[in-house]
Write a structure and sequence with these properties.
Strand content: under 5%
Helix content: 55-70%
Number of strands: 0
Largest sheet: none
Shape: rod-shaped
Structural class: mainly alpha
Number of helices: 2
Oligomer: single chain
Radius of gyration: 21 Å
Order of helices and strands: HH
Length: 66
């Protein structure tokens, strides 16, 4: 597949995704706020469990020792 075809396909896909987001936003706007279905901890911004943070720190230290 040449570059122009890949870019054309990517543009169509981005337009498709934009339409999907807009339609989901319209659906969400017509729903009551309590009906979103997201648990409270997800909206706090803390998406990583404590164990994952410890794992990341271990990996960083391991890389520093190399």
């Amino acid at each position: 597949m040449d570059t122009a075809s890949m870019l054309d396909e990517a543009i169509h896909y981005v337009k498709f995704l934009k339409n999907q987001v807009q339609s989901l936003e319209r659906v969400a706007a017509n729903r009551p706020a309590a009906g979103m279905g997201f648990p409270v901890p997800m909206s706090s911004g803390n998406y990583f469990p404590v164990a994952a943070k410890g794992y990341q720190a271990t990996n960083v230290q391991h890389l520093a020792d190399s």
